[in-house]
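I would like you to sit down with the record closing this message with an eye to the fold:
=====
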Amino acid sequence: MRLKLKHMVLVGLVALLANHVIVPALAETPNALIAQGDRQWAEGRLDLAQASFEQAVIADPSSVAARMKLAGLQLSQQDFKASIETYQRTIGLDANNAKAWLGLGFSYLHTAKNDLALAAFNEAIRVDPANKGKLAPVLAKLESP
């Protein structure tokens, strides 16, 4: 009888651990973490959103989507040094990501690195020529003497 009770306790403990340790780990896929971060951002819980996006990047370092969310949040928080680094890493994964080039350009623009901003904007136009019209006012200021 005692052995059966110990076995039941052990089985119960394993089930409890599976529900609280293994299942949440599986739920924390990069897409789930990105969705969680999006909700937190919309609710104004920016520190939590940043943590969710960072966890998504850790869960899948090759996730362009996770890095773009993180970089966008960093840019919106005016953490330009961090956003520059995150956009650069994103571009390292996908050099034809026009939005990453745009984000990088605006991050450089806000740090008064106008030559680098212009170069990033030109890459955004190379990747997606439709950006030329959108960036016309910014380019005119950057290109003027």
